[in-house]
Amino acid sequence: MTSQWEGGRVLADTVGGGPPAVQSWEPVSVPGRPERFAGADAVAYRLQFADPRSTQAQRTLLEFQGLYGHTRVWLNGELLGTHREYFAPARFEFEPAAENELVVECHRPEDGFGGVYETDHVRDALAVPGIWWGVHLRLRPPAFLRDLVVNPRLTDDGGAIDVAVSVDTTEPVTEPVTLSLRPEGFRGGGAMEREQVEAGPGDRITVTRTLTLREPSLWWPRNHGDQHRYVVRAKFRDHEITRTTALRSVEYSVDDGLRVNGKRVRARGVNMLPSGDLLADFEHVEEAGFTLARLHAHVAQPELYEAADEAGVLVWQDCPLSGDVRVDPDRGRTVARTLASTVDHHPSVALFGVHDDPERPFDSRLSGGRMDRLRFRRRVGTGTDARASAERIADALPADRPAFPVCGQPGTEPDAAHLYPGWTFGDADAVDWLCATVPALTRVVTEFGAGSLTEAGAEPTGLDREIHDSVVGSADPAVSQATQTRTLKRVAETLRLQGADVLAGFCLRDAGAGGGMGVLDVDGESKPAYDALATSLRPVVPVLREVPAPGGRVEARLLNDAPAEVQGTVRWTFHGSQAGDSDAGGSMSVTAPPFESVAAGAVSVPADASALELSLETGTTAVVNRYRL
C-alpha cells in the first residue's frame, strides 16, 4: 500500500464531521511526511483498492504505525474507527467491497500531547499530521493470533516473563496456543507452555501465562556487562508472533544513585529530537560511546528501541508532553499507560520523564551578575502549577522504573534539572556557582548545552539568536562553534566532578539548516562540539577542574565512572612556543576507585601556551582530552 496514495489539506469546516473534504488531492508517498503539507492543521490521505481476498473466509485488517494526530479512518464513506496515540499501533478490521476507498484524516493534537512536535524544536516538515512509519493491509484466517504482550521481571527465585496472547476468531476453536521462551544468541535456559483455547464465533480470548527462568542471564548497560535477551514466541495453528525482551532491574534514589541489577551505573549522553533519520542519529550516539539517549518529549519508531537494546544504551523515555501547556491528567494517564504498554518490554527503556519544561521561570537570559544571581536565588525555590498533573500521570507509568514528573529549569522545582550555564545564565564558569547554589539539582540533569551557527546570518529553527549573539558576540560560524565546544566541555566535566548520576546534553542534531543546539548539523555532520562532548563523557577520562588562563595553575583529576578500579599515568603537555620543552609538561601515577574522581596532578600552564593536552595511559588504552586556552 505504498504507490497509489493521494493526500490533501483538509478544509477546516469539515474537520470532525463526516468524511473530510480537501482542497485538492495530490500524489504522496505513504508512509512519510509530505513536506508540501508542512504547517497544516489537518491532512487527509486517500487510497483506492480492490477486494484483496482470494476467499470469502479470509479476514481483512489494516494496521498503521506512527499515525500522528487525532485520526479518523473512513472506508467507503463509513467511519471505520479512530485513533489518538501515534506511538501505538492502530488496527482496524473491515469487510471489503469489490472496490474500496480508504480515507485517513489526521488532525494535529489539541490535547497537549503532541509533545516536542508542537514546539519550535521541530521544523514543520517533520510534524506533518499523517502516516509516518508504516501501513499494512493484512489477510488473516478465521482464527488467528491478534497480539502478544510480554512483561519481564526479576523475582526472588530468578526471573519471570508474564505473557498475554490474544486469539481472535469467527469460528469455534478448541485448540492450544504454544508459548516458548528461548535465549537469543547465547546459551541458556528456556521454557515452554501450552494453554488450551476454547472460544466461539466472534470471541476474542486472551490467554495469560508466566514463563519462569531459574537462573536468568541479565541485560546490562554497555561497559557493565552483556546484553542478554530472550525471544518469546506464541504459536497458534500456522500463525506465530514473537517479541524480544530481557530481564533487568532499574532503581534510582538520591542516596544510592542509579542502579541497574543492583549495581551502580552512571548515565551519560544526549537528548535526541525527531529528525529525518533517527536511526542514523542513534549510530552517532553509539559511535560517541554515550550510555544514555533521552527521547526528548516524543516516542520513537520501534526500531530505535531495538537498536538501543542491542547496543546496551539506556533510554530516558519522555511522555509526549512539553512546554507551557496544562493537560487533563486523566487523559495523561491514558497516554502514559499506552506508552508503557508500547515500550516497556524493551530493557533499554530505563527511566521516564513526564512534563518537559512546563514553564520558563526567567523571561530573558541572566548575565550572571550580582542582581541576576539574586533574582535566581529568589525564584529557584518556587515550583510549577503543572506538578499535580505531572505526578498523577507519573503514577500511571511502570512502578518498576524511576519516573521524574517535572523536567525543567530551576524555578520549577524540577525532579530532573535543565541547567544552561554559559547559555541562559552567565558564562560557562557560572557552572561552579550553580553547583554550589543548587547542588540537589546537579544529580539528575536532563539538559545542558549551548547553540551554534553553521551559516553566517542564519535564523535557525530552535536557536534563540538573541541569546546566541549575547553569548558569542559574533556571527562567524567558526567562533560560534568554538564557543559551543568550550561551554559543553566545561559544563559536562564540572557536573561530572559534582557527581551527577544522570547527564544529558542538549542536543544531538540541529533542528534545521543554519545551526542550532545540536552537536551535529541538520545533515548529521559533526561540529567540533560532538567530539569534545564524546570525550568529556567517556567513562574514564582525565579532566581539568577548570580551564586556566595561560600562566595560571590548575588541578587535573581522573574521572572514573567504570565499575572497576583504574590505574595509569596522567600526562600533560602544551602547545605553543614551549610545546617541545619537556619541563613544560608533567605526569602523575593515579589509581581511581570505581565511580570516583581523584587528584591527578597540579598543572602549571606556561604563559605562552595556546592549548593543553591531558592523556591517560593504562598500558592497554590511551585517552586524550584537549583544551584550548
Quick synopsis:
With 629 residues, this protein is an alpha+beta fold. It is 16% helix and 39% strand.
Brief descriptors of the model:
single chain, 629 residues, alpha+beta, 8-stranded parallel barrel, 6-stranded antiparallel beta sheet, 36 strands, 16% helix, globular
Spatial order of strands in the largest sheet? 20-21-22-23-24-25-26-28
Look at the helices and sheets and give the structural class: alpha+beta
Tell me roughly what share of residues is in helical segments. 10-25%
Question: Tally of extended strands?
Answer: 36
If you average the pLDDT, what whole number results? 94
**Low-pLDDT segments:** none
User: What can be said about the biggest beta sheet?
Assistant: 8 strands, parallel, barrel
Task: Describe the structure in your own words.
The protein is of the alpha+beta class. It is 16% helix and 39% strand. It is built from nine helices and 36 strands. The protein has an eight-stranded parallel β-barrel, surrounded by four helices. A six-stranded antiparallel beta sheet has the order 2-1-3-8-5-6, with no helix packed on it. Strands 13-12-15-16 form a four-stranded antiparallel beta sheet, with no helix packed on it. Helix 1 (278-288) packs parallel to helix 2.
Give the topology.
Layout: E1 6-9, E2 26-27, E3 42-50, E4 59-68, E5 70-75, E6 78-83, E7 90-94, E8 99-107, E9 130-140, E10 143-155, E11 158-169, E12 173-184, E13 191-199, E14 204-213, E15 229-236, E16 239-245, E17 250-253, E18 257-260, E19 263-264, E20 267-272, H1 278-288, E21 292-295, H2 302-311, E22 314-318, H3 329-343, E23 349-356, H4 370-380, H5 387-394, E24 403-408, E25 416-418, H6 430-437, E26 444-447, E27 452-453, H7 465-472, H8 477-498, E28 502-505, E29 515-516, H9 528-536, E30 540-544, E31 553-560, E32 566-576, E33 586-592, E34 596-604, E35 609-617, E36 622-628
Parallel strand pairs: 20-21, 20-28, 21-22, 22-23, 23-24, 24-25, 25-26, 26-28
Antiparallel strand pairs: 1-2, 1-3, 3-8, 4-7, 4-9, 5-6, 5-8, 10-11, 11-14, 12-13, 12-15, 15-16, 17-18, 18-19, 27-29, 30-31, 31-34, 32-33, 32-35, 35-36
